[in-house]
């Protein structure tokens, strides 16, 4: 890579950032997301993990509303909601991002190979993704939890492995249309190998789709984690927003109108999901020059 | 002795069509391109001229026959094709589609250099190619994306991207048909200057005999997968022999003295090439009874024929029973 190419790349990156900063919704999403990431990373400083175990909270009043036990009250065992919420962000973000990474990596590799090579590769990969597409993720999670014991790793694995076929199909369809473009033909006429065409033309043109798809997969993964935790299939020793909702539900928080228990984790899930979507949309608009042209005009 | 740069011998290209039919897109083409000339390949849409151009680039593989470059048949292994495409380049009909919307002008032009691993002094070569293609000063265009360029500028970028490799042969597939009339002349002028300055040989594929008239040294007329008439541009245009060439020429606006011949219908489907002379179903000679009067109608309908020299001149040849009777 020449110095010139590096210089241009650096400037392109700076330009992308300058444009991103002009996008209000994108910046809002990024700030919210940054906030959650900071909370997750700084959890040990912000909260006391000893307070997560009912053994240590016998001194606290149970079902205390925020006014009586600032900042967010306590649950049915006297555990402070605040500490659970802070530590819960770690699990939700970790599962959301890790499962999405698995899904996006497998989905992109499978989708690009199937679309690009066609023929029997396409046929085999299509059957494979159909097979994974019909695996219902809740029974799979139950089976895995039964065999390996409930753990965070299982949850990530289950969500990742059942989410990739959707990504793969989307990307395959996009690759099929890109393959027909004249600039691919031009590249071949210039002497390009399949690898070059894939790296220089196909991947850059599916990248916005991959990013858009990732930002949609993260919230789905976070929601799935919430569902699986709610069903008690997650690591029982780690607090997540989903397990908080489960505890609240099974302790009857809804009936007692203990809104300080179920509302914060619910709102956090919504905020993170929304933030990811805002960031993704802003990125997509900037990374696709055609959309950029539309905005400028 | 003429110095033949590229030649096709008995070239056939077939495609599988629906219900097991086979489209014979290129159906026995013998065509020689002489070093340093501009050869125009003219024909209606669907006559196989683009397929022929793509086959010459090795983008399509012939079912029979061969493409010979500098006397050697081209091979279809990856490393040969890469080197071959460093010497034979293509310009496309639609310059918008031919440029990746995510690549800057610089990247689009440098792509060939990177693929062909001619990396040293890349920036200099790109700048030189762009300015030779009429985009000056070149540095002003480096960072632009295709959507920021006009149609004519895009085509100049495509031409620069091909010329940066300093090819021996440039295949231009309808290079100006998607451009505004006002910039057509400029692009054609540019291509002609490339011939003069860089000594490149050009095969220009077009449906427009008027355009061929303006730039070509030699013209080959293609109908339904085969060359039906071929000769020096001046000779072929002043005394066209094949009724198909006459019909094409009679509708060129600049040609006023000819009575317009409007052909019936479109060229038949290449899955059903008629027996005999492939043009007989639309031929005005057969239609008007002229062929019957000459006593050749039977042969027109039943006897296929190859190109034959006209009146002993081996530069001008035609495939028509009425001429070679």
CATH topology (level 3) name of chain B: Rossmann fold
Number of strands of chain A: 0
Number of helical elements of chain A: 12
Order of helices and strands of chain A: HHHHHHHHHHHH
Strand content of chain B: 15-25%
Distance between the termini of chain A: 34 Å
- Going across the biggest sheet of chain B, name each strand in turn: 6-7-8-3-9-10-12-11
Task: Give the N-to-C terminal Cα separation of chain B.
Answer: 29 Å
Describe the structure.
The complex is a heterodimer of chains A (297) and B (325). With 297 residues, chain A is an all-alpha fold. Chain A has one domain: MetI-like fold. Helices cover 76% and strands 0% of the residues of chain A. Chain A has 12 helices and no strands. Chain A has helices at residues 3-22, 24-41, 43-46, 81-117, 119-133, 137-148, 152-179, 182-189, 194-230, 241-250, 259-287, 289-296. In chain A, helix 4 (81-117) packs antiparallel against helix 5, helix 6 (137-148) packs across helix 7 (152-179) and helix 9 (194-230) runs parallel beside helix 10 (241-250). The radius of gyration of chain A is 23 Å and the shape is globular. Chain B has a single domain, classed as P-loop containing nucleotide triphosphate hydrolases (Rossmann fold). Chain B has helices at 49-56, 78-87, 105-115, 122-132, 139-142, 151-163, 181-198, 209-215, 233-238, 243-250, 284-287, 290-294, 297-302; strands at 4-16, 22-34, 38-42, 64-69, 72-73, 88-91, 169-173, 201-206, 218-223, 226-232, 308-310, 313-318. In chain B, the strands form 2 sheets. In chain B, strands 6-7-8-3-9-10-12-11 form an 8-stranded mixed β-sheet, with helices on both faces. In chain B, helix 3 (105-115) packs parallel to helix 6 (151-163) and helix 4 crosses helix 6 (151-163). The two termini of chain B are 29 Å apart. The model of chain B has no long low-confidence stretch (mean pLDDT 89). Chains A and B meet through helix 8, helix 9 and helix 12 of A and helix 2, helix 3 and helix 6 of B.
């Amino acid at each position: 890579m020449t110095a010139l190419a590096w210089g241009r790349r650096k400037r392109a990156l700076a330009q992308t950032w300058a444009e991103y900063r002009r996008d209000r919704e994108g910046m809002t999403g990024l700030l919210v997301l940054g906030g959650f990431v900071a909370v997750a990373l700084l959890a040990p400083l912000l909260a006391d993990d000893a307070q997560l175990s009912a053994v240590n909270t016998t001194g606290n009043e149970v079902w205390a509303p925020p006014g009586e036990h600032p900042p967010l009250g306590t649950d049915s065992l006297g555990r402070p909601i605040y500490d659970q919420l802070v530590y819960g962000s770690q699990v939700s973000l970790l599962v959301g991002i890790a499962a999405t990474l698995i899904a996006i990596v497998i989905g992109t590799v499978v989708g690009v190979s199937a679309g690009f090579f066609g023929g029997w590769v396409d046929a085999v990969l299509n059957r494979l993704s159909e097979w994974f597409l019909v695996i219902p993720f809740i029974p799979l999670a139950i089976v895995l939890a039964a065999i390996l014991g409930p753990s965070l790793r299982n949850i990530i694995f289950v969500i990742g492995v059942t989410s990739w076929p959707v990504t793969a199909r989307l990307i395959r369809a996009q690759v099929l249309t890109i393959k027909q473009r004249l600039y691919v033909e031009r590249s071949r006429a210039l002497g390009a190998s399949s690898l070059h065409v894939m790296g220089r033309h196909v991947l850059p043109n599916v990248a916005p789709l991959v990013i858009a798809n990732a930002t949609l997969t993260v919230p789905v993964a976070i929601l799935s984690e919430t569902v699986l935790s709610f069903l008690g299939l997650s690591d029982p020793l780690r607090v997540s927003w989903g397990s908080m909702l489960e505890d609240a539900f099974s302790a009857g928080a809804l009936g007692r109108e203990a809104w300080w228990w179920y509302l914060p984790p619910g709102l956090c899930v919504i905020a993170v999901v929304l933030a990811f979507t805002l960031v993704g949309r802003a990125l997509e608009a900037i990374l696709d020059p055609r959309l950029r042209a539309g905005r400028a005009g | 002795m003429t110095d033949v740069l590229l030649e096709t011998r008995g070239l056939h290209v077939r495609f599988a069509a629906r219900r097991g039919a086979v489209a014979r897109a290129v159906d026995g083409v013998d065509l020689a391109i002489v070093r340093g000339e501009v050869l125009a390949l003219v024909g209606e849409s669907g006559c196989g001229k683009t397929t022929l151009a793509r086959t010459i680039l090795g983008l399509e593989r012939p079912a029979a026959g061969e493409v010979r470059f500098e006397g050697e048949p081209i091979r279809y292994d990856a490393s040969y094709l890469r080197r071959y495409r460093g010497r034979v380049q293509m310009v496309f009909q639609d310059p918008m589609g031919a440029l990746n919307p995510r690549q800057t002008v610089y990247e689009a032009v440098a792509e060939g250099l990177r693929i062909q691993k001619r990396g040293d002094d890349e920036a200099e070569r790109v700048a030189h190619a762009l300015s030779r293609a009429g985009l000056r000063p070149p540095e002003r265009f480096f960072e632009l994306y295709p959507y920021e360029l006009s149609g004519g500028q895009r085509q100049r970028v495509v031409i620069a991207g091909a010329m940066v490799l300093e090819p021996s042969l440039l295949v231009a597939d309808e290079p100006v048909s998607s451009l505004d009339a006002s910039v057509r002349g400029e692009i054609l002028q540019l291509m002609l200057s490339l011939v003069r300055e860089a000594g490149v040989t050009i095969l220009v594929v077009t449906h427009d005999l008027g355009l061929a008239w303006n730039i070509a040294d030699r013209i080959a007329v293609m109908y339904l997968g085969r060359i039906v008439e071929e000769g020096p541009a001046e000779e072929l245009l002043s005394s066209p022999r094949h009724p198909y060439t006459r019909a094409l020429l009679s509708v060129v606006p600049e040609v006023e003295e000819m009575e317009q011949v409007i052909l019936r219908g479109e060229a038949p489907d290449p899955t059903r090439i008629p027996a005999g002379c492939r043009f007989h179903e639309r031929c005005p000679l057969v239609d008007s009874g002229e062929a019957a009067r000459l006593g050749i109608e039977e042969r027109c309908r039943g006897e296929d024929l190859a190109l034959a020299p006209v009146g002993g001149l081996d530069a001008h040849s035609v495939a028509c029973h009425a001429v070679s009777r």
